[in-house]
Amino acid sequence: MSGEKTEKPTEKKKREARKEGQIARTPDLGSWGGLLVASMLLPMLVRNIMDTTEKLFVQCTAVISDPDPGKAMKLLVTGLTDGAMTVAPLAFAMMATAIIAAAAQGALRPSSKLLKPDVKRLNPFTGIKKTFGPQALWEAVKVTAKTAVLGTVLYLQLRTMLPGLVTAASMPLPALLKLIADAILALFRTAAAAGLVIAVADYAMSRRRTNKQLKMSKHEVKQEHKQQEGDPLLKGAIRSRQMAMSRQRMMSDLAKADVVLVNPTHVAVALRYDPSKGAPRVVAKGAGAIAARIREVAAEKRIPMVQDVPLARALYKACDLGSEIPPELYSAVARVLAFVMTLKTRGSAAGLHRAPALTN
């Protein structure tokens, strides 16, 4: 059936969908990516915080020993600035991760249509369909799978690390703290990696669902092609009108011709020679019915017609309308023009004449 949506969406359909905000996306990609980046930068962040805190305590001791409101205010500003500079790399990295994740899903293009009020969004049946439809089922499956996968991964990771943590009770405190910190970071990274895998799967499902929603029927594809390329009937009508207007202009220019070369009935080529503009030019040409019309106008305007079969055919094939004749035909055309000038001097140029025979 022509109404069944079986065809892939066209590029135009996809562009319109993007403008309306209908694209495949998942927020989990940016969230889990940000967590993974944070787990990578956290050791450096902790070291910087410890160094900043140590320096701040040393400065606080100096201020306490010599109380001065100016020094205290300066210390406060320095502490806040150093704290912001310490946290800034992590904040910028997570922001960049979120932007890259959104860009990878094509979600950076703002859609003004989503900001406009739409009565359809208030339709309770639409809300019920979303709550109990296939989308809601996938969301439930996704949450269950996410919980199960993350739970399994964390359980396996903890089971691997716990024996080492239990036997580390006799270790020095700094080494024990480092071991615990490494274990927590490993948990974060494992959870983030598993979350990213789930996010990629979610994006694939979202993309599949969006492409299914954007599918088109064969009739819609044909209609879009017609809109882009134009209706063939309309294009044919425009082309016919353009050709008719071109013939009208050609017949109007025919009145300026000096001679019309004929074949004698199939082809007609009208030439005009103006020495100030170079070689003779073709002001009208045609075959069949158009050639017959050129001969009729030539007879009405009393334009000389010369029957020269080889020359008429050569001019018809070699010359475009409005172009100069090619150099290889100069001699033959000059002979015809001289013949026409002779007829005019005798006062009998109008009508049909045979080309003069070549003389050695």
Automatic annotation (TrEMBL):
State the InterPro entries in the record. T3SS_substrate_exporter, T3SS_substrate_exporter_C
Q: Which residues cross the membrane?
A: 83-104, 183-205
Name one process (GO BP) from the record.
Answer: protein secretion
Q: Which GO terms describe its cellular component?
A: plasma membrane
Location of region: Disordered: 1-25
Q: Which Pfam families has this protein been placed in?
A: Bac_export_2 (PF01312)
Cleavable signal peptide: none
| Biased composition annotated in UniProt, kind: Basic and acidic residues | 1-22
Keywords (alphabetical) are: Cell projection, Cilium, Flagellum, Membrane, Transmembrane, Transmembrane helix
Q: What is this protein called?
A: Flagellar biosynthesis protein FlhB
